[in-house]
Amino acid sequence: MLVLVGWVAIPGYLTGKWPWTNPPPVTNLKQLKTLRQQGLKFSKLSGWKVLHVQKNVQIGGRKWLVQEIQNQQTVAILLLLPQNGPKDQPQVEWLDIRGFHRWQTDSDRALKFTVESMPTSGKPPATVEALFFRSRRAEQTFAVLQWYALPNGGSTATSRWFWEDSIARVSNRRISWVAVSIIVPIQPAGDIELYRPLVKGIGEIVQAQLMAETFQL
User: Fold this and answer.
1) For residues 60 and 92, is the Cβ–Cβ distance under 8 A?
2) 213: which DSSP letter?
3) This prediction's pTM
4) Which has the higher per-residue pLDDT, 50 or 4?
5) Cross-strand bridge partners of residue 135
6) d(CA 117, CA 212)
7) Which long-range contacts (CB under 8 A, 24 or more apart) does 53-57 make?
8) Angle at 8 between CA 7 and CA 9, to 5 degrees
9) What are the phi and psi torsion angles at 153 (to 5°)?
10) Which of 19, 122, 172, 182 is the most buried (most CB within 10 A)?
11) % of the chain at pLDDT higher than 70
């Protein structure tokens, strides 16, 4: 870890151009802004369709995009927060969402899944390590899946983005990100594990779509 920090910091010390204060541009910022305005598109093959899109929903200090999506049996809510500029970093998004909804949560656990990369990229499958939990508010109960989507996978922790972005800055590149929260209404007394395949399936569709459109140049 110290070697990595030195690798990034020493060139900045010698030149006076610190990568943290003068970050390189986010090359796919246009795609991120399009996502912020339009949301994700769901193909008919995915089995899901968009019912409603609401832009600029204030949650904490950030403006999220909210999409209501539906398949033949389920209505779910998709919250997206794309990176907004070169100095924008993931911070306390999960605390903001829990506070905004006034959730009581339990059954927190990891949910891991993989998504195939574009065939032309030559990259291995992307791995996502998301957080899966149950939330309650008044008379409503939800299964929730959250992670920071990155070009090569994702994690619920900000540290993964930080280190990958620090390494990328050495080559004058950036690692862009999108905060994702999937919310599915469930039975109040239901076993949350029964909903794992459902939320995992939505997560795979969302991550694959982001990799194919938002993170591709």
Assistant:
1) yes
2) I
3) 0.88
4) 50
5) 105, 142
6) 8
7) none
8) 100
9) 145, -135
10) 182
11) 87
Q: Which amino acid would we find at residue 209?
A: Q
Tokens encoding 136: 């309650």
Q: In the numeric block, which tokens belong to residue 217?
A: 């140049």
Helices (H), 78-178: 93-101, 158-170
For residues 25-59, b (16+ Cβ closer than 10 Å) or e, as one string?
A: ebebbebbeebbeebbebeeebebeeeeeeeeeeb
pLDDT at 1: 44
Q: Kindly provide the residue ranges of all beta strands, DSSP E only, lying in the chain, ordered along the sequence.
A: 49-59, 62-70, 75-82, 104-115, 126-137, 140-150, 153-155, 178-185
> How far is the C-alpha of 147 from the C-alpha of 134, rounded, in Å?
15
Residue with tokens 């007394």: 189
> Quick one: CA dihedral 181, 76, 65, 208, positive or negative?
positive
Q: How far apart are CA 162 and CA 144, in angstroms?
A: 24
Burial zone of 12 (CB within 10 Å; 0-12 exposed, 13-18 middle, 19+ buried)? middle
Q: Cα(27)–Cα(53) distance, rounded to whole angstroms?
A: 26
The answer to whether the CB of 53 falls within 8 A of the CB of 66 is: yes
The position carrying tokens 């909210």 is: 66
